[in-house]
Design brief:
Elements lengths: L1 H10 L2 H7 L1 H5 L13 H10 L1 E6 L5 H11 L3 E6 L5 H13 L6 E5 H9 L20 H8 L8 E2 L5 E6 H6 L8 H14 L6 E2 L4 H10 L5 E4 L2 E4 L4 H15 L3 E2 L6 H9 L4 E5 L3 H7 L7 E4 L17 E4 L7 H13 L2 H7 L7 H5 L1 H4 L12 H9 L11 H6 L1 H4 L10 H18 L3 E3 L1
Parallel strand pairs: 1-2, 1-3, 6-9, 8-13
Antiparallel strand pairs: 3-12, 4-12, 5-10, 5-11, 7-8
Helix pairs in contact: 1-6, 4-15, 5-16, 7-8, 10-12
Length: 447
Amino acid sequence: MYKRSRRLLRGLGLLCALALGATACGGSDDEGSGSEKVSQADIQAALKKGGSITVWAWEPTLKQVAADFEKEHPGVKVNLVNAGTNNDQYKALQNAISAKKGVPDVAQIEYYAMGQYALTKELTDLKDFGADQLAARFSPGPWNGVKAGGDGVYGLPMDSGPMALFYNKKVFDKYRIKVPTTWDEYVTAARALHRADPKAYITNDTGDAGLTTSLLWQAGSHPYTVDGTKVRIDFSDAGAKKYTATWQKLLDDKLLAPVTSWSDEWYKGLGDGTIATLAIGAWMPANLASGVKNAAGDWRVAPLPQWTPGAGASAENGGSALALPQLGKNKALAYAFAQYADAGKGVDTRVKGGAFPATTAQLNSKAFQDTAFPYFGGQQANRIFAESASNVADDWSYLPYQVYANSIFNDTVGKAYVSGTTLADGLKAWQDASVKYGAEQGFTVQK
C-alpha cells in the first residue's frame, strides 16, 4: 500500500507542476484542453452532433444512466469502463495522463483525492461550463469537495456520505442499552455492552484514515489548511483533542473489536450482533442488505452522536464526483453526461439503484424522505440521512496529497491500536510524516 501510493503521487508530477508551472505537466495542444467558456447552446449542439465519450467509473448505477443517456441522445455513445476502484483507477488515470494517451473524457474521483488533480491542473475547471451556477443544487459537504480548497469547480458531485449511527436494535434492547446521543454516552454504552457480553463490541476499528478524518471533521477540527502550494498540518486543535480524549477511552478499555472492515469476519460480526454499531456514511444500507441478510429487521439508524450535547454537527464519510480530465476530448459532450448523471435525470435513476444523492432536491423530497427501509424494520431512515447532509460543515479541507497521507496512516496512527502509543501521539507522528513528505514534494508546509 505504501509503495503503491508513493508511486502514484510521484506520478502526479507535483514537483514538475511546482517548478515549471502546471501547464508544463497537465496541459497539451490536444483538442478541448484549453480553457474557454462553453455555453448551454454549445452543449446542446454537441449532443445534436453526437459522438462518443469514455467514462471511467466503478459506481454500478452509472450503467443504467449511460443507457438512458444514449437512448435520449441516439447519436451519442458512452463507453463505460471500470478501470478499478479508487486507488487502482487513480494509478491507471495518472499513467494515461503521463503518457498523454488513453485519457478518459470523464473520470470518477473521490472528494479526498480531488485536490491533487486540481492542483496540477489535470482536471478541467467546470466554471467554464457554468457549473458554479449549480452550487445550490448540492448539499454543502459534496460541493465543498469539488471545490478542492480553491476557487474552481473540478467536478460535479455524484454521491455523498453524510454520517449516521447504524445500530443493532435487537442487541441494544436485549441489554437495555440506550441509543447514545453523545460520544461520551457512546463510551458508556460500549462499556455496558462489553460487560454484558465479553464477545460483543460497540464497533470495530483497527485504524482507518477515512473514519478518523470524518470524526475530526464532525468535531470541528481543521487539521489541514491549504492555500495552493502552502499547506499547514496541525492535529492539536480543540476539535482533535475532543476526538482523541474520547476514542482513547475505547482503546484503553479494549472496547473496539479488532476486526478489519469489509472482511468476512466483519460481516459475520454485523450479522451475529458482536459488532453492534457503525458510524458510517449514508451509502451503507445497500451493503447491509446485501452482505448481512440474516440481520434484516435487527438494525436501525440514528443521528451521529455529538461531541457537544445538543449539537447537530455531522460530517461526510466517502462520496465522489464526475470530473473531466484536462487531456480528455469532446469536453462539451463529456460535461453533458456529467450534468445528466449528477444534476439531471440520471440522479433519480441512480437513487432508485441504491446510490445516495448529493442533490438537495432529492434529499428534501417527500418521496425520498418517506421511503421505508424493510431492512431497518420499515424505518424512514432517509430523514436522518438528509438531516445529516444539511448539518455538514463546508469548511473542511483535505491535503493536496491526501491519497499518500492516508496510505501511511497505519504506520503512524495505527500504532495506537497495537501498542502503547497514544492516539494523540499517533496523530502527531502522522502530522510529522505528512509534513516531511509535503516538503519533499515542493510544498511550503507549516505545522
